UniProtKB/TrEMBL annotation:
GO cellular component, one term: cytoplasm
Binding site for L-histidine: 65-67, 92, 106, 110, 299, 304-305
Lineage: Bacteria, Pseudomonadati, Pseudomonadota, Alphaproteobacteria, Rhodobacterales
Protein name: ATP phosphoribosyltransferase regulatory subunit
InterPro entries: aa-tRNA-synth_II/BPL/LPL, HisRS-like_core, HisRS/HisZ
GO BP: histidyl-tRNA aminoacylation
Organism the protein comes from: Phaeobacter gallaeciensis
Length: 362
């Protein structure tokens, strides 16, 4: 196994390569305000981060990643366009998988540039491909923006679209909601009984759990209104099912998605962006004819990405997490920009895993 000094040396070398590409070195503090991360991810982040409390600064989290503090820094006082690189430790609790490291080094590269997003996507991916060259990794790509466009263009209620968007990064929950909204699965018996009750709020207590009676009453009325909404159409569901199943090399994936756009015309602008990205990748020397594209890729571990996503994996070492991951996170700049926004794309690499793979091939 590589030791700490080897990992730090490799991280420094990788960061120098990103500096040579025009990146400015940044080093966000190890302790990050918990409030921002909780606002972004809700209480779920507590299961993945180490939390502490400071008498003056309040609740803090040991840095779970670099992207959020880098975006905050850029939106506060960064120039345009901008490129950043960094290396350092991040901390993730691993109770569900104790074999995985809870402290490890990441090296990253982030691009903030509104002129040509497709070119920026290609720049980041090609630089990462150069960093891992020679490691026999499989590259996977996707585009969460296509699925977002499909959901936001459905002929259904805003409430249903919001529910689907809320669970977009939880595929099993998303599928369960989608099937229910399409009438493929029946409503739970307990819910039907609740809605059939003439007075479901027949109790005296002002609060149930952490919700007031008024909040629960409003929720019941919302469920009753939803029960009157017609199902998502068969043609839209067929389009969504086909979209989620797309797994091909990039050019063939685009061809399949163009066919799917007959049933889901709202995805056409996102497909135009995918087409521009394919051309930009090819211009950078990437063999797009052999580059995998999966329409569902990135939905389980890339919560703040909302467009292009990618990862590099060691197929001969399925026990290892991704060696590198990245993608586009335009929406995150809106959330953290106090009204401002800028297209942004970036990613991170794991030098410890790269060294481990190299040791295994010697």
């Amino acid at each position: 196994m590589p030791n700490r000094s080897q990992i730090q040396a490799r991280a420094a070398m990788m960061r120098l390569r990103f500096e040579a590409a025009g990146a400015h070195v940044v080093d966000p503090p190890l302790l990050q305000p918990a409030g921002t991360l909780l606002d972004l991810y809700g209480e779920d982040i507590r299961a993945r981060a180490y939390v502490t409390t400071d008498a003056l600064r309040g609740e803090q989290m040991m840095r779970p990643d670099f992207t959020v503090p880098v975006v905050q820094m850029h939106m506060r006082d960064g120039a345009e366009p901008a490129r950043y690189t960094y290396s350092g430790e991040v901390f993730r609790r691993q109770e569900l998988d104790p074999d995985r490291a809870n402290e490890y080094v990441q090296v990253g590269y982030e691009v903030f540039d509104r002129v040509d997003p497709a070119a920026a996507d290609a720049e980041v991916f090609s630089l990462f491909a150069l960093q891992v060259r020679g490691l026999s990794l499989r590259a996977a790509t996707g585009d969460i923006g296509i699925l977002i466009a499909a959901v936001q263009g459905l002929k259904t209620t805003d409430r249903r679209m919001a529910a689907l968007m809320r669970h977009l990064w939880k595929p099993r929950r998303f599928r369960a909601l989608l099937d229910r909204f399409a009438g493929r699965t029946a409503e739970p018996v307990s819910r039907l009984a609740l809605l059939a009750n003439a007075d479901p709020m027949g109790f005296d207590a002002p609060v149930i759990g952490k919700r007031s009676a008024a909040e629960i009453s409003a929720r019941i009325e919302a469920l009753r209104a939803d029960a009157e909404v017609g199902p998502i159409s068969d043609s839209e569901m067929a389009g969504l099912d086909s979209l989620l199943a797309v797994r091909e090399t990039m050019p063939f994936a685009l061809e399949q998605l163009r066919d799917i756009a007959v049933d889901l015309p709202q995805i056409s602008p996102a497909l135009n962006r995918l087409e521009a990205r394919i051309a930009a990748l090819a211009a950078r020397g990437v063999d797009v004819e052999r580059l995998d594209f999966e329409a569902s890729y990135g939905r389980t571990s890339m919560e703040y990405y909302d467009g292009f996503v990618f990862g590099f994996y060691a197929e001969r070492r399925p026990d290892l997490p991704p060696i590198a991951t990245g993608g586009r996170y335009d929406a995150l700049t809106r959330k953290l920009g106090n009204g401002a926004e800028i297209p942004a794309v970036g990613g991170v690499l794991r030098p410890d895993l790269m060294l481990e793979i190299e040791e295994g091939t010697e």
